[in-house]
Automatic annotation (TrEMBL):
The keyword rRNA-binding does not apply. Pfam families: ABC_tran, oligo_HPY. Residues 12-255 form the ABC transporter domain. This is Dipeptide transport ATP-binding protein DppF. The lineage of its organism: Bacteria, Pseudomonadati, Pseudomonadota, Alphaproteobacteria, Hyphomicrobiales. It is a peripheral membrane protein.
Amino acid sequence: MSEVVLEARGIVRDYHVGGGLFGAGRTVHAVKGVDLKVEKGKTLAIVGESGCGKSTLARIITMIDAPTAGELFIDGEKVDIAARALSPEMRRKVQIVFQNPYGSLNPRQKIGDVLMEPLIINSDVPAAERRERAMTMLTKVGLQPEHFNRYPHMFSGGQRQRIAIARALMLNPRLLVLDEPVSALDLSVQAQVLNLLADLQDEFALTYVFISHDLSVVRYIADDVMVMYYGEAVEYGSRDAVFSDPQHSYTKTLFAATPRADVESIRKRLARKAA
Ligand SMILES: Nc1ncnc2c1ncn2[C@@H]1O[C@H](COP(=O)(O)OP(=O)(O)OP(=O)(O)O)[C@@H](O)[C@H]1O
């Protein structure tokens, strides 16, 4: 039987904005009741334009932010995100990789320390083993052991994203939330990082939630696709079903607005890289 790693039921997130001493302000309904389910080793891509609620949903899944309503289950266990003391074990299971590797790495921290930090904070793994695990992880993401003592500015954008992925994997998570992880990279580097993610998924049986606005990337990486529009999931199904027979008018418009040539060229490039 398949194992469900992530399930969300009726997730709602409202933000109260504006309103000072005398103003009432207003409520932004960022996520309006989203259900989703992702099985072990699979990738759910969440796609939609800026402001549709993708990042809000990503923060809720990562337990950084609490929903206004709804339930979240990780490995079948209900998560009480509002609780201050979420167990370290629960936190360990879900890690996030952000779009901008420049912003997410401390410029004064050597790469080895970047990788060992999650172990220092969340585990009692001894120093020698921390070092060894960081070295191993560097090679798993296609970097070299000698990169251990270098600083982030000495790396390219693609290499920095590899470092961010390595750090996210240091605690052996079950689920990686990838929030536009290749959007800031050149096309050829995007392909390399996507192939790396596919390899790591196979090796560690990882489950991915992949947030993107780029349909060509989604088509390559996803098993299932959710299309969000103004906080709602207007389309949700297998990649092939969503791409071959989109049901919602917004999805049709979104697909029509994506230049076909772009999709084809990146698919060919990815296929060449994969060969
Ligand atoms: N902390 C916040 N306070 C108030 N409103 C917010 C907050 N975070 C997000 N919003 C609003 O919620 C809506 C959804 O935002 P969100 O960032 O989740 O969308 P997104 O699809 O990820 O967009 P982008 O790709 O631009 O990040 C937007 O209208 C946004 O302005």
